[in-house]
Amino acid sequence: MKSDQLLFKNRRPGETTFLKGYLETGGYEGLKKAFTMDPAQVREIVKASRLRGRGGAGFPTGMKWSFFPADKPGEKYLVCNADEMEPGTYKDRELLLADPHQLVEGMIISAYALQAPTGYIFIRYAYERCARNLERAIIEAREAGFLGKNIRGSGFSCELFVHRSAGRYICGEETALLNALEGRRANPRSKPPFPAVRGLFDKPTTVNNVETLASIQHIITGGAAWFKDLAATVEGAGTKLYGLSGHLEKTECHELPIGVPLRTLVEEFGGGVWKGRRFKACLPGGASTPYLTAEHLDVSMDFEPLEKVGSRLGTAGVTVFDDTTCMVEATLNLNRFFARESCGWCTPCRDGLPFVNWILEKIERGDGVMEDIDMLRDQLRNITGTTFCALAQGAVGPIESLLRLFEEEVVDHIKRGRCPFNP
Amino acid sequence: MPTLTIDNKTVTVPEGANVLEAAKRLDIVIPHFCYHEALGSVGACRLCAMKFLEGPAKGIQMACMVEAKDGMVVSTQDEGAVDLRKHVIEWLMMNHPHDCPVCDEGGECQLQDMTVAGGHGIRRYGGLKRTYNNQFLGPFVYHEMNRCIQCYRCVRTYQDYCGGTDFGVLGCNQRIYFGRFRDGPLESVFSGNIVDACPTGVFTDKTFRFHSRYWDLEEASSVCPHCSLGCATIPGARYRELQRVRGGVNKETNGFFICDRGRFGYGYANHPDRPRIPRIGDREVSWDDSLEEARGRLADIAHRHGPAAIALLGSPRASLEANYRLLTLAHHLETDRIAFEAHPERDRTARVVAALSDKNSRSLEEIRNSDFLLLVGADPLNEAPMMALAVRQAVRRGAGAALIDPRPVGLPFHAVHLPLAAGRLSEFLQAVCAGTFENFSRQERTILEGIAERLRRAQRPILIGGGDLLGAAGVRDLLRTSEKLSKEDRPCGAALILGGPNSYGAALLSGETSDFNGILDGISEGRIRALVCLESDPFTDHPDLSRSRSALAKLDLLIALDCVPTTTAEKANIFLPVKAPAESAGVYVNNEGRMLAFASVFDPGTPIRVTGGGDHPPRVFEPGTPRNPPMSAWSVLGALQNRRESLNSLRREMEGEHARLAGLASLDPETDGRRVLPGGGRFEIPEIPAIPTEEKAFDLISIQSLFGSETLSAFSPVLDPVRPVPRFLMHSADAAEIGLAAGETLRVTTDRGGFELPVALSEVMARGCLFIAHLKGSPVDLPFPGVRFAARVDRRKES
Amino acid sequence: MDQLLTEDQLDHFRTLAAEIPHPRELVVDVLRAIQNNHGWVPDEGVELAGTILGLSPLQVEEVATFFDKIYRRPVGRRVIHVCDSICCWSRGGEEVARLLQEKLGIGLGETTEDGIFTLLPTCCLGACGEAPAMMIGLTTYGHLTSDRIDLVLERERREAP
Ligand SMILES: Cc1cc2nc3c(=O)[nH]c(=O)nc-3n(C[C@H](O)[C@H](O)[C@H](O)COP(=O)(O)O)c2cc1C
Ligand code: SF4
Ligand code: FES
């Protein structure tokens, strides 16, 4: 399967494309075009493109922007979420390693559309090379007159800043991110008020994912209809970066239409399950999405179809598990991550996830009893939908699907008094 | 005003109220930890879960986070909500030590209550418990981190509400820690509030630890006697000992919190030297004998020198009832020589406030809701701490604040500060009135015009003045300014800081009587032979100590009523022990003119800790209570007039006599109190002698210090570690001129004598001033707050 | 002891803090700069950051202790963060962690005797496509095998200051 390459068109192994190469493939044409329109027109096109946020929640970008008081005077901010700390997710990194101007151009256009002249890129600790790439791209863009005061005589001025973080997955949650940016503890804030009303430094703010923002210039250049048509599903729009990982022959990141079948990713792009083994399960969209099994392989990798089969597109980072994997252990690994990365604000997440850890550890160790399954269920029921933010929501996804899809395996642990995969 | 249904009961609540608050109105108890009325909702504990059946919110939601809306139908009994609440408790108990039997919070622990109420009885979690090291947090608060349930209330109290920056939340995930950067005393003077705020036993009152179980305490609603604000408190006593004080709730005054002086200043009631037995000379006698003696000797003096030879001195720290009975004692003795404050300037100031402050007088609650506050000659952290927090809450809600004060005033909020000389505060107020600042320097003018502009634009502006620095004339000018700035639809309020808890009440009773200086003159000249002192100490509380001491030495008869061992009590010919505030019921009228009733917490008597020789619990029980325990001051004074009466009949009489005290008799300690009726009065301020000015002289001003200046707390030993040491405060540029460095000794000469003390320097204070904090019991005879005099300074020559 | 911040850095942060309306936003930058110079952030570093930004040490500490990549205790000159999240786990992450402990002779959370390496587990490094992975300092190494670990350790040891 071949596909249009928008975000990855300048990607070459081991190399980073900077301004020269970027301009050669039509870079900053979107920006030039955007400046011929007024900001509301740009927002209209984005809305019409049906682009949905690539950060995990899939909220329609155009709609999010329509809540933003773009036309009201006053300080406003655009924030790019480059925290990308969800296990199984590395698409933003691939993009920033390959072609940082994709994000820079997208951000300038978005800042123009939102009339938010100050942009922050919040980037995680581990992405130092990406941060440096971005800093260089920002300098290049400024020197080339795409950034700074009165860009290309448009009357619009824009500055971008790179903010390096110091760890913690919760910083990716958009309101926690705002606290982190302000130099505070990264606890999420309550919503309402939403960031569009009161965000960074209490001013209206829009937070978008790297991939979301990088898609903007392509939408402007190609038009909304063209962008929609890129998808492999009727309801979908655009391309998507799919990061493959886990028990595949090839674990790489690819730009493919939204809605490609999961099977294509696994068999064609992933080269099939490694070591000739069988497909047992996968996380289709990062560590916070419920498992899918072999019977779901033909699902389209788009928002609605995945929800129909009980999971989510999330970040479209697909992590595959072969048939030698203990799903209890895999789930325990995931849950440990979430418990450790909980910000510690609300009780069900801070204390509930460690409780779940303890149950899963007990079962995995072979000390579980049948009542533990009920206990696990009642823990889950009470963590689901009861927390302050969505972190714990993500944590329960895999556990819930473990009990739904692999209950027998859990029971087997208890009956044998040991892990069946760990003789 | 939305109307909603909770558990089949309907309630209408104000716009913006949340569902938890709505349920509270229906007396439906929704368990919660992190929500606190003063701190707001943060949705952290997830205990207040309810099921939302109809309306904009659906499903299980946190009641504290959902705004009440019309048509909502909510169930607190829903199975899912109940289950969640039970789980929240289970989670919180995962790491909580099962140390209830030995925990200091036992019996008043919300976690204990919720655990029982929530039905979590069997421990399912079998993992290890997380444990912490505790920190040393100073003399007041004990730290036991293992008991923490991460409701974040302490840090929201300490940092957000009180503005402290040295205590907070550390760590992440399940390893959250509430503490300091390093071991060390908490720096905020509101630190004790975390004891009240913590729902479990993480922060407990160190001064109370291991003394009593909560349920063994005698408690009652009371009013703090340590400053003029009248914060609500709940003292607790056992074994005839006042063992602790916690914050009470009064929405109009303190809200929920109190300062550390109010909380830890209670030791005076148990002071080992507290005089508890009536005395004639050095001889301990019975009540009957002492009263008989007092009546006889007063009659004798009246007989020999005429009734005008008897004078009486009331007190701003005595209850309204006692001061009133002192007044009727004067009538009874047919003398008009009575004053209600040993400090004439404080007396005048309070009288101006009592006479002139009217509908523009503002409560702390109104300050919290103000949108612009101008502080003039006020240092609230030292003079009336909760006022500082009230302003802080206004500023947190977006109000502006400005301060005109010669001192380097520290504030728990941001304010523009112009250090104007003390002598120019009135001039400034008059200029605000007039709207022009011609007599000020260009730099000053810019700032002042900015302030005036904000005052004009604000919707609910309030002028806050400190009585000590403004003095009577300044206070009058401030009240006039507030009147002048008021418009029909936009009043400008005023709030003044006075000397004591009942300054206003005492002043209200004073009417037009002369001041204590008049009495001192009478004594000096031999016209006055006897003085009755009610809870006042003219030996130390008069601004001119040599004047008062030499006059008082001439008295034939000094009768003192008090609960603490003051100089006056010690020198009295007849001493009559009275109840401490927590031991008696009474009323104070606070700085706003609000009558606040307090109930009696316990009966006085020598604490078992004393009679038991220090053993605790004592091995030998003795009745210990003297035959003649202290009585309420009002009943002692009544007895001197041959009255036997109840507090109620006394209050009814007062109401009848003083129209402004309407409602006094029905005042309930459980309520927020009640404003006295406006004075509608005029008060002519007697001519105040100008301070002699000298070429090159410094303006030496005595000021208050939170843990040093107030009489009762000066007798509280637990405050000793935080009491400041005497020193001068001087502008660094002035110091530079005489070649003085910080910490060096400054010699100051005045016409009242000289001082040699180390100096501290500041750049944010007026030039040409010298400040000295009044410290009770300090070996140096420091002048009383509110006193100014000309001083010559020079650097002490090192020998 | 190394300088916590160079004169230039001090100058830079002080100037910036005076210029921007919310100096607090620099707190992680200052802490990271101190860590970069000194290897970790000692108490004096927290205090210094507070002085520059107008915060109390506690207010800095509140942030410093929230993040896991600010080291508030001494670490070796090279900090190895070995990924223990799901993709690395699925491709031998636990074995990598075991090998590292064996080769360095230390446990997780410990520092080698020569003071060069500290070994810490970390959550996903965004190197899921190259799992199993680890990060040393700010450099990510993927596709780890026993031999490659030897090579990497050798190089890092050589280059460690
Ligand atoms: C715990 C948590 C972690 C998140 N991490 C990220 C992240 O690393 N990157 C990201 O773009 N969005 C992340 N999100 C989603 C953001 O909150 C937000 O929805 C997103 O940045 C919006 O951008 P988009 O609309 O362009 O997707 C996270 C959400 C949660 C609850
Ligand atoms: S669910 Fe609660 S504790 Fe967990 S990260 Fe969100 S707010 Fe923090
Ligand atoms: S799981 Fe290890 S790098 Fe992502």
Task: Please give a quick description of this structure.
The complex is a heterotrimer of chains A (423), B (799) and C (161). Chain A has 423 residues and is an alpha/beta fold.
Characterise the protein shown here.
The complex is a heterotrimer of chains A (423), B (799) and C (161). Chain A is α/β, with parallel strands linked by helices and 423 residues long. Chain A contains 17 helices and nine strands. Chain A starts with 18 loop residues before the first helix and ends in a 7-residue tail after the last helix. The mean pLDDT of chain A is 97. Chain B has five domains: 3-93, Ubiquitin-like (UB roll), CATH 3.10.20.740; 128-270, Alpha-Beta Plaits; 279-349 and 504-585 and 616-661, 3-Layer(aba) Sandwich (Rossmann fold), CATH 3.40.50.740; 361-491, 3-Layer(aba) Sandwich (Dimethylsulfoxide Reductase, domain 2); 698-795, Barwin-like endoglucanases (Beta Barrel). A seven-stranded mixed β-sheet of chain B has the order 15-14-25-24-23-16-17, sandwiched between helices. In chain B, strand 12 (232-238) and strand 13 form a beta hairpin. The model of chain B has no long low-confidence stretch (mean pLDDT 93). With 161 residues, chain C is an alpha+beta fold. Helices cover 47% and strands 11% of the residues of chain C. Chain C starts with 6 loop residues before the first helix and ends with a helix. The model of chain C has no long low-confidence stretch (mean pLDDT 96). Chains A and C meet through helix 5, strand 5, strand 9 and helix 13 of A and helix 2 and helix 5 of C.
